[in-house]
Amino acid sequence: MWIDACRPKTLVAALVPVVMGGLVFWIYGDPLHLGAQRDYLFTFFSCLGFALSAQILSNFSNDLGDSLRGADNQNRVGPKRAVANGLISARAMKIAMVLVITLACLSGWSLGMHHPILFIPGILALILAMGYTLGPLPLAYHGLGDVFVVACFGLQATALTVYALYLEVGRTVVCAMPWTPAIIAGLGVGLLANNILIANNTRDMETDAASAKKTLVVRNGRTFAKIHYSFNLFVGILCLNTVFGPLPLVILPLAFWQMAGFWKAQAAAEFIPFLARAAVLMLLTAILCVTATCLGLIPVKF
After folding, report:
1. Gap between the Cα atoms of 277 and 232, Å rounded
2. Total domains present in the chain
3. What percent of the residues of the chain are helix, what percent strand, and what percent coil, each to the nearest 5?
4. Rounded to 5 degrees, what angle do the CA atoms 162, 159, 144 make?
5. Is the pTM higher than 0.85?
6. How many helices (H) and strands (E) does the chain have?
7. Is residue 178 part of a domain?
8. Segment 77-116, tens digit of pLDDT
9. Residue 189 pLDDT > 90, yes or no?
10. What is the average pLDDT across 39-60?
11. 44 lies in which domain range?
12. What is the spatial distance between Cα 119 and Cα 129, in angstroms, rounded to a whole number?
C-alpha cells in the first residue's frame, strides 16, 4: 500500500528533469567533459535523490490533503487513495512525510553545504510540494496545480540540476552556465509532466468540483483540458527538439495517437489510462534525448 501511495507512475516526473539537466550541462556547460567523473556523479545522484523525495512528498501530501478536504471519496473514479480508504492512517502519513523530508535533506545536504545558495530553492521545493493540497492556500484547490508542475517539476528541477552541476564541476574546471538551453529543456519537460496532472484532473472533474477543488479542468471544462493536453504534447516536444536536435521528433506518432485518444475519451473512467501513457511518453522522449546526446546528434548551439 505504501508503494501505491508513492504513485510510481508519477516518479517519472522527478527522474526525467534531473536526467535532462545532466544532459544539458554535459552538452552546453562542459562540452569538453573536463569535469571529473566523481563531480558529475555526486551532483547528479544528489539532485536525483532530492527530486524523487520531493515527488513522493508531493504525492503523500496530496493523498492526505485530498482526504482531509473530501476530494477523495467513494464517488471518485480511479485507484484507491490510501488515507481516504483507511489503508493508511492520517497520523502514519504525516510521519511518512517527515521521513521523506529527512531523506530529501540527506540527499542534498552535502551538495548544499558546498554551495549554500542551493538550500533556498531546495527548501522552497519542499514547501510547495506540501502546499499542493495542504496549508491555508492549497495550490491544487485554486487552479495553480498546473503552474506548480511546470515550474517545479520542469523549469526548477531541470535548471537547478544544471546549476548544481555548474557550481560543483566549476570548482575544478572552467565551465559555463547554459541558462538558455536549461530553461527551454525545463519548459519542455514541465509541459510533458503536466499532462500526467491534466489526465488526473480530467478524470476527477466531477468529484473535484463537488469538493470545491477548483482545478483548471473544473474551471474551464474537459474541452479546455483536451486543448491544454494537446498544446503540452507538441510544444513540449518542440522545446526538447530545440535543445537536443531532431531525434526527439521520433516520438511524434505516439504523441498524435495519445492526443487522438484523449480527444475521443468522454467518461471519467476513459481518462484513467492517460496517466500512464503521459508518463511513458515522457520517459521515451527522455531516452531519445539521451540517445541523441550519446550519438552526438546535437546540431544546435546556444
Report:
1. 14
2. 1
3. 75, 0, 25
4. 160
5. yes
6. 13, 0
7. yes
8. 656 777 777 778 889 889 999 999 999 999 999 888 989 9
9. yes
10. 92
11. 2-295
12. 15
